[in-house]
């Protein structure tokens, strides 16, 4: 093989490599935008469910889509100080897990005119803080907490007190999920993900190292 032929072959291989790398890069960017689009569409469905009176169903389906979206871009939050604050420190609200009157188990001392008077589990949090985007993955769907509750029987003149047990199940409120969704979108815009896929693919802030980290993390954890 002559020197000219070797040079031509090397150039061909290099061109093919660059072409494949660019395709992979575009697919990585597109997968993030697909997750974002799915999350937006699911948010619309969740709103419709809430309007129809099924708030819990709406928050569940939106939370599932939001978790997928955030997992897709999770490694990017470790790249900047602001991203790390969003992940660990940003206040997104609370989930109130205090038992309501209708949640006291009638078979264990509640119901029939009995209402919660005092929570006996003083070591448990009445409200769970949603601190950082990472908190979305720290709690079950729905958030579940068991309580022992002192009740008072309002149906009797004696106002007899008893101890009841109850399990509280709460979904993360839609307003908290909306705040998380907004923060993720805002952060991606800050680091170079524009509104359109093509713009993001061309943005120089989106270096290959970031996209490689996204791909490696997904391969190991999803």
Description:
The chain has 222 residues and is α+β, with helices and mostly antiparallel strands. The protein has one domain (3-221). It has helices spanning 3-51, 55-73, 81-88, 174-190, 197-202, 208-221, and strands at residues 91-96, 114-119, 127-131, 143-153, 161-170. Strands 2-4-5 form a 3-stranded antiparallel β-sheet, with no helix packed on it. A two-stranded antiparallel ribbon has the order 1-3. Helix 1 (3-51) packs antiparallel against helix 2 and helix 2 runs parallel beside helix 4 (174-190). The chain is elongated, with a radius of gyration of 26 Å.
Label this structure with key terms:
222 residues, two-stranded antiparallel sheet, 3-stranded antiparallel beta sheet, alpha+beta
Topology:
Layout: H1 3-51, H2 55-73, H3 81-88, E1 91-96, E2 114-119, E3 127-131, E4 143-153, E5 161-170, H4 174-190, H5 197-202, H6 208-221
Antiparallel strand pairs: 1-3, 2-4, 4-5
